[in-house]
Amino acid sequence: MKRYKEFTQELKESTMSHEYVLHSLADKDINAHIKNGKVVVHPDDVKETRKHLKKIGHDHLKVTHKGSDQVAESAELDEVLKPSMGAGEYVKDFEKSDNPKFSGKSKDKRREMAIAAYLSAKRKQK
Hints:
Number of strands: 3
Oligomer: single chain
Largest sheet: 3 strands, mixed
Strand content: 5-15%
Number of domains: 2
Helix content: 55-70%
Strand order of the largest sheet: 1-2-3
Radius of gyration: 15 Å
Structural class: mainly alpha
Number of helices: 5
Distance between the termini: 39 Å
Shape: globular
Order of helices and strands: HEEHEHHH
């Protein structure tokens, strides 16, 4: 049985890995999200996504797609935060978000998460 500390560390690394993959794909102008451990992209981007995941060492992730209408609609709704927008934009976005991962999180916790995401994205930009 895993210890709680080991479990939380694995969970943190997994989440950071997913964020890295999504940021990396966004840099390639590929709209994607992760659902149930799979990378979901537009059908036209599947081949390029697999190739890119292999290049960055994340080819263990499965790539799938939805119908082009559904993906295009979700892509329009997804905002991409960039470090050039500043930490304030991250905080505003995290505080107003209705994403389930934020449910039950206090305003201070969302602010902390937003700043961490901003700093992570800023480090990756360099």
